[in-house]
């Protein structure tokens, strides 16, 4: 439980509504853990959450837009990993 952050604290800290986190969870972008009827997020997710909040507040991107952006970022990461693996394999054949 030491790695969990209460969502109401995040709402206050980032000045966002609880519904923002609920919608992110519904879209599959955030995992909310409920313990004794209190909702938490894992502290490991804070970096991603901060990116989502910035997109929403500073760029006025809605939840559906955030979903699209994060799906594209995941695909880019996957392609970059695949490219690195292919470059490594190619080096084996070049030597």
How is this fold's topology laid out?
Blueprint (H helix, E strand, L loop, with lengths): L3 E3 H8 L3 H9 L6 E3 L2 E5 L3 H13 L4 H32 L1
Q: How would you describe the overall organization of this protein?
A:
- By secondary structure, this protein is mainly alpha-helical.
- Helices cover about 65% and strands about 10% of the residues.
- The protein is built from 4 helices and 3 strands; from the N terminus they run E-H-H-E-E-H-H.
- Strands 1-3-2 form a 3-stranded antiparallel beta sheet.
- The longest helix has about 30 residues.
- It is elongated, with a radius of gyration of 18 Å.
Structural descriptors:
3 strands; mainly alpha; 95 residues; three-stranded antiparallel β-sheet; 4 helices; elongated
Mean pLDDT over all positions: 94
User: Helix content range of the residues, please?
Assistant: 55-70%
Give the N-to-C terminal Cα separation.
50 Å
Shape: elongated
Kindly provide the radius of gyration, computed on alpha-carbon positions and rounded to a whole number of angstroms.
18 Å
Q: What class would the helix/strand composition place it in?
A: mainly alpha
Largest sheet: 3 strands, antiparallel
Q: Please report the number of helical segments.
A: 4
Order of helices and strands: EHHEEHH
Poorly predicted runs: none
Overall number of strands: 3
The portion of residues forming beta strands comes to 5-15%
Strand order of the largest sheet: 1-3-2
């Amino acid at each position: 439980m030491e790695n969990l952050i209460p969502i109401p604290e995040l709402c206050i800290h980032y000045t966002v509504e609880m519904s923002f986190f609920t919608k992110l969870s519904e879209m599959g972008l955030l995992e909310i853990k409920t313990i004794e009827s209190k909702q938490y997020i894992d502290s490991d997710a804070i970096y991603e959450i901060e990116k989502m909040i910035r997109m929403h507040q500073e760029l006025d991107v809605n939840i559906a837009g955030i979903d699209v952006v994060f799906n594209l970022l995941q695909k880019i990461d996957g392609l970059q990993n695949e490219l690195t693996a292919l470059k490594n394999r190619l080096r084996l054949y070049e030597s």
